[in-house]
Amino acid sequence: MSVRELIVLGSASAVPTKTRNHNGYLLRWDGHGLLFDPGEGTQRQMTHAGVTASDLTWLCVTHFHGDHCLGVPGIVQRIARDGVAHRVDAAYPESGTVYWRRLRHAAAFHDTEVIREQPVSGEATRLDTGDAPFTLTARRLDHYVEAYGYRLEEPDGVTMLPAELAARGVRGPLVRRLQEDGAVTAPDGRTVTLEECSVRRPGQKVAFVMDTGLCPAVYELADGADLLIIESTFLDEDEPLALERKHLTAGQAAAAAAAGGVRHLVLTHLSERYGDADEERFLRQAAARFSGEITLVHDLDRVPVPRRRAVVRPRPAE
Questions:
Q1: Stretch (H or E) spanning 308
Q2: 234: closest CA among 218, 253, 221, 219?
Q3: Which residue among 90, 199, 211, 298 is buried most deeply as judged by most CB within 10 Å?
Q4: Are 262 and 225 in contact (CB under 8 A)?
Q5: How many alpha carbons fall within 13 Å on the CB side of residue 282?
Q6: Residue closest to 218 by CA, chosen among 242, 186, 188, 183
């Protein structure tokens, strides 16, 4: 059975707290495991979450500030130690290659050859996902060091309409042929098209946005996302500080989600200046600008990707 969910391994910002570990986000997607921004302690958080190195197929780093990458050495060495045999792709800003190499070889260990590096550069990079059931794009954000957000997209599909198939006598192997060829000849000799018997099913989309000020890429990444995982470092009253440090407030993150028609907004990367009592304020400020589902995550939370939605084909007028 396919599983599509976010596992939160850490949700703090620059400084971890007693209740929030440094960053770490695992997106499980139909047998693939995309680990974003492993900070310190990610290995142990994976153990708490029941995640193994063998679950990982991607390692994606948004930028090379410590809270987003200091867990890389442990993850790489765990991949080697556990003998992971399948390929693990690694995406990171090309401008930070020197930091990647330091992290990748931070200590003595028996190395692994399964990691394939895919550095990103420019305003946007389409990564090579091979035969994976999704595309992965990196877009440059606005931060003090070069930083990228990531967007995973599933291709659009179709949902077959049983009543329309039955009305045209299309059943059994003919249904598969209709899906593959786009048209078949029905038992009565009529040509039946896929369009007549199906509706478009939009592919699911997930966006991951970390340290950044508001910029066009934030909106491009969020556009139409079913799940938007986005930093919410500051409360709205601290917007001048957010602007100075090139981060987002709860309200700004929510406004980007509203502009993009996001279905489920996930807030994370909270500054250590706020305590547990402030969480309700983050939610209120986000809800003031976004009317959809909002989750302010905690470590080890699991957030399912919203179920697919079908676009219903308008019925012809009688």
A1: none
A2: 253
A3: 211
A4: yes
A5: 27
A6: 242
68 is in an annotated binding site: yes
Catalytic residues: 67
Distance CA 171, CA 173 (A): 6
- Retrieve residue 107's tokens: 């200590």
Residue 63 marked in a binding site? yes
Residue 67 among known ligand-binding residues: yes
Residue type, 231: E
Orientation angle between helical segments 97-104 and 72-81, nearest 10 degrees: 50
65 is in an annotated binding site: yes
How many Cα atoms sit within 13 Å of 21 on the Cβ side? 24
CB 214 within 8 A of CB 252: yes
Whether 251 contacts 237, CB under 8 Å: no
Nearest alpha-carbon partner for 267 in 238, 229, 299: 229
* pLDDT string in tens for the chain (318-residue length): 579 999 999 999 999 999 999 999 999 999 999 999 999 999 999 999 999 999 999 999 999 999 999 999 999 999 999 999 999 999 999 999 999 999 999 999 999 999 999 999 999 999 999 999 999 999 999 999 999 999 999 999 888 999 999 999 999 999 999 999 999 999 999 999 999 999 988 999 999 999 999 999 999 999 999 999 999 999 999 999 999 999 999 999 999 999 999 999 999 999 999 999 999 999 999 999 999 999 999 999 999 999 877 665 544 444
In order of their start, the domains of the chain are 4-156+202-304 (3.60.15.10), 160-199 (no CATH)
Q: Are strands 135-140 and 124-126 parallel, antiparallel or unpaired?
A: antiparallel
Phi, psi at 246, each rounded to 5°: 55, 60
Token pair 């209709």 is found at 178
